[in-house]
Amino acid sequence: MKNRPNIIIIMTDQQRADLRRSCGYELDTMPFLDEWAQGGVDFARAYTPNPTCMPARVSMYTGRYSESHHVRTNHNAKDALYTRDLLDVLKENGYVTALCGKNHSHHEPEDFDFHETCGHLGYEGEVNTTSEEIAFADFLKSTNHMEMHRPSPGGVKVQHPYRNVSSALKFIDGLDGNAPFFAWVSFAEPHNPYQVPEPYFDMFPPESLPPVKGKKEDLPEKGDRFVWLRKVWEKILGEDIETRILRARSNYLGMLRLIDDQLKRLVEGIRERGLEDNTIFLYLSDHGDFAGEYDLIRKGPDLPDVLCHIPFIWRGPGIRRKGKLTEAYVSIVDVLPTLCDYLDIAVPFGCQGKSILPLLNGTKYPPEEYECAFAESGFGGLYWNTEDHLDLITEGASRNMETFDCLNTWTQCGQVRSLWKNGWHIQLDMMGKGYLYRLSDDPAELCNLWDDPSCQGQKQELLAALAAEMMKQTDLLPVPHHRYRVKVHPKGFWHQDFAADDPGVRNMKPIGESHLEED
After folding, report:
1. Contacts with 1 (C-beta within 8 Å, 6 or more apart), sequence order
2. Which entry of 1, 12, 147, 454 is 20 to 30 Å from 390 by CA?
3. Residue 493: left if φ>0, alpha if ψ -120 to 50, beta else—which one?
4. CA dihedral defined by 388, 394, 397, 398, rounded to 10 degrees?
5. How confident is the model at residue 498 (pLDDT cuts 50, 70, 90)?
6. Nearest-5° angle of CA 452, CA 456, CA 458?
7. Residue 199 preceded by cis peptide, ω within 30
8. Does this model's pTM top 0.70?
9. What tens digit of pLDDT does each residue of 317-339 get?
């Protein structure tokens, strides 16, 4: 067991993929991450399966999409459906496990061998003992999840990313060295409340920020729910909405630099302990943030690229030094099967992701497996609208119109599905309403080409690909209760021509006890 690599998953909460200089952004928000990523594989086309915290986190652990694992909102943890997940697999194979930071998954902190947790508002799992920590917790509680217009008190050491890294190093220092470890270092930032201490508060001044591409005038083309969301923010933020959004953006970028500094501290801490050469690192986020795009903040309806596109960087033993962004499409659901493949462990039945190990170590792979990414959103039913007799306060989305939960009945209802392929993005809802964007020319998705006569061939191709992906992600659970055998590739692949000479496919055994029943 001790020869197996250690695993550290660094997850941020609500980090938009493109706000890094290496991704073309004008400001240098994460210099350490950009440089560190050069020593591994940095994916330019990585996507969340659902731009919502808990559904995405459950997908990472189970390798399943939200429609299958049933955690389609932030309030369905108890409904998680799967056979075995990443935590189960690692524990079964001798790993000592730790949660250092925000949980918001289907697991309880006690499911990990070590846990020191945090949330967003100061008293959500944190152990605040010093006067500085208590003052900071009180400050967070007073924010109501909004943007702050003064530096946060207490300096860097009371901030959660600093404390999360300290927890991870404490966990590692407490190990006896005879077993591999897994640490989920889960930062609650740059999620709102948008707050940051000095020197980060003044690092990216609001008046000097690059302009966003999409503005509020573009929202009607994005759909009624985007227009509704902006109107709600106008009520919540008031006449100072533009100034407040600029400050939210400024703080958000400052939080990215704070996270970057703590990532550097974590990596250097692993290096100083002589563990770097035998540790797999994965840096990712659960989903994105508008961060001012379309004059919006946080998140909300549908599956826009800005909310679904995430950072996704692998580095460690056996992972080649790519040195540039990799164009293959990958997803959070691929984490579990990839780690299983890396460790030569059978993938749990019901996993819907696929191993991306060939992309990491440079071995042969079928390119068709990585030609698209798929995402979904919605808890079902009809769309709620302004004609329905339901208001924000009654629904629980706001308290006295001073706060606002952007994930609510209106933004999360219905069903929406999306596919990214060949630089295109297609979205379709349950009523047949569609959007089509050519991201290479239109990264902000301002020009819907759904009805463009010159794009009808492309639309039909992408609709067929979307339909095929939706069928591929039909849940295998529960398995047939009599005779019928489910054939799955051990790496999650679908293209059998590539696997014809793979003994794992040729000698595949039935999976699941029910398959062993006799006639």
Report:
1. 93, 94, 178, 179, 180
2. 147
3. beta
4. 120
5. very low
6. 115
7. yes
8. yes
9. 999 998 778 899 999 999 999 99
